[in-house]
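G., the chain you wanted modeled:
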Amino acid sequence: MLKDSSNVSADTKEEQQPKKGWALALLALLSTVVLFYMAEIIGGLVVSLYPALRHWSNGQANSWLTNSVGAQFFYGLIADGLIVAGVALMLRWFSWQWSTIGLKRPKVRHIVYGILAIVPYYVVYIIAVAILSTLIPALNVNQTQQIGYNSVHNLLPLMLAFISLVVVPPLAEEIVTRGFLYTGLRKWLPKIASALVVSLLFGAAHLAEGGSVGPLWIGAIDTFILSLVLVFLREKTGNLWAGITLHALKNGVAFVSLFIIAGR
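Predicted structure as tokens:
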């Protein structure tokens, strides 16, 4: 009877495990979406306090929020900081460590993997865009991404823009997406399904960067492909630093192209 009881207990645990994994994956997904939007809302509200305290008109406030490098810098810093802080709270709730989501001590090979991965990323992206452009003639591959910095000149503004575009977002976005979200989804879903969900959400989050022109479909395609490569690096290394390196390198290439070469 003791043996039968043990078997029943083991079977019960096996039946319960998928449910726990399903609940954990759903909670990780919902909390990531909530964190993202709440961080943007709170970041916007905090930054908008400055023109309110200065008693500026709506036109003055909108102009400052749109064109000021300082406003864009602090908005991004606050929003990304809140996202990481939210992940820290979720880790405590889940009884996870930072190492659970892949944020471990970096090794030299992780940085090298991230640098080398820029080549297959661009190759896959170019091939995908060529195919999609043929299948979808209306796809605007030249649509401009609205990143919030309309005019950046001189050393200090360039440094602030570099930090807020190349340094901070790769850290925050890898921690919350390929780190926390992907780890939560993997508790229930297979690798491929988890990678697709993470990448679809990551791509969809960039659609709004088309601004008044409309959804930035080419940007969503770009970030979807980038995310697939980043998930691959996370799986192969068990660490986020290879992905952080690739993400920062990709953003760095865009930064140099826009602000150094084109002089935006």
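Residues 146 and 209 are 5 Å apart (CA to CA).

Shout if anything looks off.
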